[in-house]
Amino acid sequence: MGTEKFFPKESELTDELLDTRSSDRSDSVKIKKDKASDTSANGEVRNRKSTNVVPYHSESDPRALWTLISGLPSPVSLAWTIATVTINGLLCLFAVDLVYRASLIFPSQELSFARVGYVSENSAKLLLREPDSRQLPIFVSYRSAPEAVGSAADESWKSVGRFYWLSNETDFTHALTIDGLQPSSRYQFAISNKQSGYFTTAPSSGTTVPGRDKLTFLTSSCIIPRFPYNPISHPLSIPGFKYLSKWLPSLKASFMLFLGDFIYIDVPRRMGYDPETYRREYRQVYASPDWPSVSDSLPWLHVLDDHEIANDWDGNTTDPYPAAADPWNLYHASVNPPPVHPNSSYFSFTHGPASFFLLDTRRYRTPSLHLPANSPEKSMLGPSQLSALLSFLSRPEPQGSKWKFIISSIPFTRNWRFGSSDTWAGYLHERQQILEAMWSIPPGTGIVILSGDRHEFAATAFPPPE
Fold first, then answer.
1. Contact 183, 202 (CB under 8 A)
2. How do residues 158-208 score in pLDDT, each as one tens digit?
3. Residue 431: what are its φ and ψ, rounded to 5°?
4. pLDDT tens-digit map of 373-392
């Protein structure tokens, strides 16, 4: 409790304090117990107004710490009260800064950028955005990268085309494809609005890049700007990009597979349900000062997850899915690998020694809580996507292709108990169908499932039953 000093109650006074007598004991002075009084060290009696306990607090009293922790004013110290009020005020300002500053001050309407999407062995997809009409018309060119020019290479610029109009209908974006490229070759592209970059085409099916005996690619998910929070950082900063950029030169990855939650539309606070609100979230990631460091020469491919729509989304194409799908299609699906079926949002491609199937685990699913987890009527993928996935698993691969990767935005394992109904643990019948299809593949081809959603790492084996 700390240091407290109390005046003693009258009922606790000893006889020595209650009775004082003269030296000859002829007279005595009786202090009545019902009179509020106190006795000094030399025997003098002083009146006091009350018998209540009067506590004394030292500045080292742990209640000072409680004042700082609780945010409540201190009853004994003005200094601690000022300190806790100041801290409360700063925390409120930090919260307002984190929640509102980027949305209100940095909507990134003026964003001008270009990035590389899917790159095959003979083509590359580019996405560009240019809201400034003074830059129109826009010309796009490419050439073999100067450092890659050899005796048989041509370093002259070749035109991809020109376009004269960009509008708000597409949020001033445009997707285009460069064709007629050579496998395992490095190219440079340039756009008349001063955007430029590099990309390397995929090796031929079943092979690796010359001089390398393996395929390297990256996976990540769940972009949260300004985490951990730093009040002096740029409102659009993404610390995770800074860490990733330090590794990219040494990894020499062929592409990034982003496993969902590119934006967090509902964290820390949803600002709206209209397409412009969703578009702004995408623009702010691409407008981040940290984005160029992780996109130069690195193609990004994407799958969709819940925070691009709404938390734990299982509402198919009902609102707000149409608003959420608008920027997803403009910024991501437009430069993803080819969809398996026309107008679908699941994709498949082959890159050297590996094949990939990118699932959509949100658009086609049965609501997670309406049926038991093991119900055969419950589906994560919908019939068309499930059929396409099973065909992907069973089809023979080209000579030299030894791996098949299934890309799922949510965990396939049941080891995560929290929120499991939103994962494959809530769709066990369909999950079993996929497992049995994987177990039936002849030896020689490895099957790997990569998933996002959870902000941690785990590796799980799915051996066939004995």
1. yes
2. 999 999 999 999 999 999 999 999 999 999 999 999 999 999 999 999 999
3. -60, -40
4. 999 999 999 999 999 999 99
Q: Which residues of 262-294 are buried (b: 16+ CB within 10 A; e: fewer)?
A: bbbbeeeeebeeebbbbbbbbbbbbbbebbebb
Helix/strand/coil percentages in the chain, nearest 5 = 30, 20, 55
User: What does the pLDDT look like over 348-370, one tens digit per residue?
Assistant: 999 999 999 999 999 999 987 88
Pairing of strands 218-220, 256-258: parallel
| Amino acid identity for residue 23 in this structure | S
Q: Return the percentage of the chain with pLDDT > 70, whole number.
A: 85
Helix (H) or strand (E) holding 435: helix 428-439
| Full-model pTM | 0.84
Strand segments (E) across 24-85: 28-30, 37-39, 45-47
Residues 111-127 pLDDT 10s:
999 999 999 999 999 99
Residue 8 has pLDDT above 50, yes or no: no
Residue 312 confidence (pLDDT) above 80 = yes
Of 370, 368, 345, the residue nearest 358 (C-alpha): 345
How many angstroms from the chain centroid is the CA of residue 273?
Answer: 20
Edge-first strand order for the sheet with 173-179 is 113-119, 123-129, 173-179
Quick one: pLDDT at residue 456?
Answer: 86
- CA–CA distance from 387 to each of 119, 337, 393, 436 (Å)? 26, 19, 10, 14
According to DSSP, the residues that pair with 116 across neighbouring strands are 126
Q: Write the DSSP symbol of residue 339.
A: B
Residue 433 has a CB neighbour count (10 Å cut-off) of 17
Q: How confident is the model at residue 255 (pLDDT cuts 50, 70, 90)?
A: very high
- 186 closest CA partner among 177, 175, 198: 198
Q: What are phi and psi of 407, to 5 degrees?
A: -105, 115
Q: Could you give the CA distance from residue 219 to residue 454 in angstroms, rounded to a whole number?
A: 13
Q: Where are the alpha helices (DSSP H) in 265-415?
A: 275-286, 292-295, 321-331, 382-394
Q: Give bridge partners of residue 354 from the DSSP assignment.
A: 351, 403
Q: Which residues pair with 322 in a beta bridge?
A: none
Dihedral angle sign, alpha carbons of residues 415, 420, 422, 427:
positive
Tokens representing residue 103 in the block = 């949305």
Angle, helix 382-394 to helix 428-439, in steps of 10 degrees = 20
What six digits make up the tokens of 192? Answer: 């008349």
Pick the closest to residue 353 from 208, 202, 183, 168 (CA basis): 208
Secondary structure (3-state) at 135 = helix
- Per-residue pLDDT for 61 more than 80? no
